Amino acid sequence: METQEVEFIAENTLIEIVPKFNHAVIHLITGDFGPFIAGMPVSVPLWAALNFRQRQKCRILPPAWMTVEELEKIKQEEKDSQVFTRIPSEHYREITQLLLENATPDIPRADEVHTLVKDIWDMRLAKLRSSTDVFIKSDEVHAQVDHLTMMELNTVRPLLLTSLRFVSRLKKNPEEQNSTINDSSTSFSVSMQVSDSEPMQ
Amino acid sequence: MSDNSDNEVEELSSAAQVAQRFQEWWISERNCPVLLPYQGELVDCLLDQLDHMRQGLAQLKASDLRAGLHRLEVERIQYLINDYLRSRLKKIHKFLPQRPAPDMNVLLSDQERTFIDDVVNATFKHFHASALSQMPTGMQQLSLPERAEERDHYVFCRVKKAAPGVMVDADSIVDFDVAKSSQSAGHLLGSNTSSQASTNDDELRKKTPVPVVLWKNADVMRWLKRCCADQHTMYAHLFLEHDITGRSLVRMNECSLEKMGITNPDHKSELFREILKLKLKSDILEIKDLERAGADQSRPSSN
Amino acid sequence: MHRSLNQSSLEESRIRRSARTVCEFEEYFSCDEILMLSERTPVVVSKEVSRLGFLDPSSDEENLKKNTKLELPLWLAKHLYNMYCVDIQLPEAFSSYSVNVMRADSSIVDLKRLQPNYYQVGRQLMALLPAEAQQISDLLVTTYKGRFRKIFDCAQNADIKETDKVTSSFDNEERAMFFEGQKVQLDLQRWRDRSQRNKINTADLVVNHRKRKREALRETNSSTA
């Protein structure tokens, strides 16, 4: 999947805005939103919010996790833990980028937020990189990847999945093509009864 | 399959849910290397909605607030549908100019089937006209090699429904537990099945392993080599000679091992232990299957 | 040639060798695979084959003598192997010396120079030498696992100007995987920098022109004043 497509999916998340206009309920295919009363916060999908913002018809309220304090807490958790921690939003990177592009004045301390999100992203990717290496070197067919966001998975997807398939093809012995069992490459049985947060093993 | 998707549309009470469900299928189709079942009902329902919306838009004045928003949304949903069909076509192209295997036909829509027929006929006509008709008679057929099914793909998947004891591989049994995955538990697995989407889950790929009783001799040899390598080097010829299939394997006991020609008591007991473990594993799987079938019957659609 | 081959196949009609390697559909029409099959491998002729003497450049005879050592391309070697005329041996890239180097540390080996189609040739050899298939398979897997980290890291640091330098020691399949990884990185970079790119900036030429114009205007004003 391309980055733009992951962003497309992210644009469907709901976000709070404070409209500067009055309007009745709007009935979209994907749901009913409103009524819009100037000064009262209302929840709309992100793509609609950005559209309004570009026309100067509203002010966007950043989501609860997009404050410097929250992000610093998340960053600290990520640094302390060896595994991937839970983050408040599945699309944190895309939402941050979109809001900072289009609604910078609405977000307090935008630069710091940007830096923090970038740091969190870099940390998680570094962990992901070492996990993938370990996974390929081991012979396992299955790994649990809790708490990874779509964007992060998308970054490693082509290379990792192609490599895994390549390795399993290399292991396939041509004369054993007549059997009905599928090839197993595990040398020890894997039952990943893992607890809530564990990296790929 | 079509029954299931009928049920799906019935339980989806609103266009919003249809759109949401369709988006999930789009994500699955984009990320899955093989073809998934065609979601005809969802596509048709959404196209209807788009038609209505477009007609409504034509009547709307340029009260730009609503018009702009509606138009944006229509374009977004249209993009989803286009991209869904496009990615399916890409996958179909991979096995042209051969016809797909017969069990793949259920995954295709009618338009896709017509498309495949047209392309295959055109291609072979082209081959014939450009090269094959010049060949000596007797060599005018082009036989393409059998297309082996792509079974060894790895995917990321998100667990939506708990499914304990899914066998991702002949050896490993994994429990998909939804309780741990309130946000996401993406599993990276070697998915050895093309499109066995379970009833309510479009993103969960379940593999149906071959039960032991259906194993052929070659499978038994592979299992032997894998689990007890030294016994394999010593006694492989005995297993081959007596043509031990899965059926005979589960009915074996120590006497039959002795009758085959394995006299050493340590080897015999070790081999017998491995056979018992294999039998136990396949029994567990069978029990879980039965449990699941029973549970599914009593609760037709959850989630 | 047709007659002699019939005879040999009659003799061994009980067990048929089918060294038709794992031919997945996409590889049938693939140009890369066709090119790869022209890589050479040493063979030893196992029985006299009439009228194939021209394959051996050093002999003038019409027939190919038994125990001649030749280097043949893989596609030819495969067909002769199916007819029991030759025995295949391991080429240099898979000799025991290379195997030891790979086992020690595979990430430093220059695969492009050694054998640019290393993995594909290896898989073909697995079918041609069934006795050693498992060892070749293990060797290929160990080699790849050792080099994976390097490929991955290089792909993540995607600087498109340095691609050739960085992939100079990769084999063809590794290069393909590297490009896939790099594509995603470039896509991500483009998305990230989009906000800067979408702003319309005044071209330098225009800015300089305006500056010069302003200067000229000031001068004329000061000279007239």
UniProtKB/TrEMBL annotation, chain A:
Residues 3-61 form the DNA replication complex GINS protein PSF2 N-terminal domain. It is found in: Nucleus. GO terms for biological process: DNA replication; double-strand break repair via break-induced replication. Residues 183-201 have a biased composition (Low complexity). Its main location: nucleus. InterPro entries: GINS_A (IPR021151), GINS_bundle-like_dom_sf (IPR036224), GINS_Psf2 (IPR007257), PSF2_N (IPR056784). SUPFAM superfamilies: GINS helical bundle-like (SSF158573), PriA/YqbF domain (SSF160059). CDD domains: GINS_A_psf2 (cd11712), GINS_B_Psf2 (cd21694). Residues 173-201 are annotated as: Disordered. GO terms for cellular component: CMG complex; GINS complex. The keyword Cytoplasm does not apply. Belongs to the GINS2/PSF2 family. This is DNA replication complex GINS protein PSF2. It comes from Galendromus occidentalis.
TrEMBL record, chain B:
The keyword Glycosyltransferase does not apply. It is found in: Nucleus. It comes from the Eukaryota. PANTHER family: DNA REPLICATION COMPLEX GINS PROTEIN SLD5, SLD5 PROTEIN. Residues 185-199 have a biased composition (Polar residues). The gene is LOC100900546. Signal peptide: none annotated. Residues 215-281 form the SAM domain. Keywords: DNA replication, Nucleus. Residues 185-204 are annotated as: Disordered. It holds the Pfam family Sld5. This is GINS complex subunit 4. InterPro entries: Aveugle-like_SAM_dom, GINS_A, GINS_bundle-like_dom_sf, GINS_Sld5, SAM, SAM/pointed_sf, Sld5_GINS_A. One of its GO terms (cellular component) is GINS complex. Its main location: nucleus. GO terms for biological process: DNA-templated DNA replication; double-strand break repair via break-induced replication.
UniProtKB/TrEMBL annotation, chain C:
Residues 98-191 form the GINS subunit domain. It is found in: Nucleus. It holds the Pfam family Sld5. Residues 29-81 form the DNA replication complex GINS protein PSF3 N-terminal domain. InterPro entries: GINS_A (IPR021151), GINS_bundle-like_dom_sf (IPR036224), GINS_Psf3 (IPR010492), GINS_Psf3_sf (IPR038437), PSF3_N (IPR055221). GO terms for cellular component: GINS complex. It comes from the Eukaryota. Keywords: DNA replication, Nucleus. Coiled coil: none annotated. The keyword Transferase does not apply. One of its GO terms (biological process) is mitotic DNA replication initiation. Component of the GINS complex. Belongs to the GINS3/PSF3 family. The GINS complex plays an essential role in the initiation of DNA replication. Required for correct functioning of the GINS complex, a complex that plays an essential role in the initiation of DNA replication, and progression of DNA replication forks. GINS complex is a core component of CDC45-MCM-GINS (CMG) helicase, the molecular machine that unwinds template DNA during replication, and around which the replisome is built. This is DNA replication complex GINS protein PSF3. It comes from Galendromus occidentalis (western predatory mite).
